[in-house]
Write a structure and sequence with these properties.
With 165 residues, the chain is of the alpha+beta class. The protein is 30% helix and 20% strand. It contains 5 helices and 7 strands, in the order αββαβββαααββ.
Length: 165
């Protein structure tokens, strides 16, 4: 998927606008998977516009995000190896994506489009999920022999739609 990333707003600018409009607002982010953080990150973000909403745990928006850690260096078109953004910063990317989703769900979508981080993530996830030799795709379905992948919720499934137990 190729798109013009210059047309998308970064989450940081959404946060700046949010805090300007809601000085008592809060964005609370929680790491969901501390035990498996070395392979992937899953974050949940909650957006509160008032202190009362925060005290009552009544968020105006909630968002989740998943990032898979790159464990190998990438190779550029000219053959040089380099660290991808998810080689060293998968947790930061995930946290910011969750905040962007929560702000969007709270009605704070900036220019009414996906955030730049969401579009970049879509490119990364498309690459990860379509790579046949990725660690998640190494086994075959016991029912039909189809290729196994990992859903965004972290559960394995057969690409031929045979759901595993």
């Amino acid at each position: 998927m190729k798109c013009d990333l210059s047309k998308y707003e970064i989450v940081k600018s959404r946060k700046e606008k949010f805090y300007k409009n809601f000085p008592d607002g809060r964005i609370i982010v929680e790491l969901i998977n501390p035990d498996t953080i070395n392979s992937h990150a899953l974050f949940k973000a909650k957006v509160y516009t008032t202190l009362e909403d925060q005290r009552n745990d009544c968020p105006r928006g909630v968002g989740y995000a998943l990032e898979v850690r790159d464990k190998e260096l990438l190779v550029s078109n000219d053959g040089k190896k380099y660290k991808s953004v998810n080689y060293s910063s998968w947790t930061e990317n995930c946290e910011e994506s969750a905040v962007g989703r929560a702000l969007d769900n709270a009605g704070y979508s900036g220019n009414k489009k996906a955030s730049l981080e969401e579009m970049q993530k879509a490119d990364r996830m498309n690459t990860v999920l379509n790579t046949t030799d990725h660690e998640f795709n190494q086994s075959k379905c016991q029912k039909c022999g189809g290729e196994i992948a990992i859903s965004l919720s972290g559960k394995p499934y057969c690409k031929n739609k045979c759901w595993l137990k």
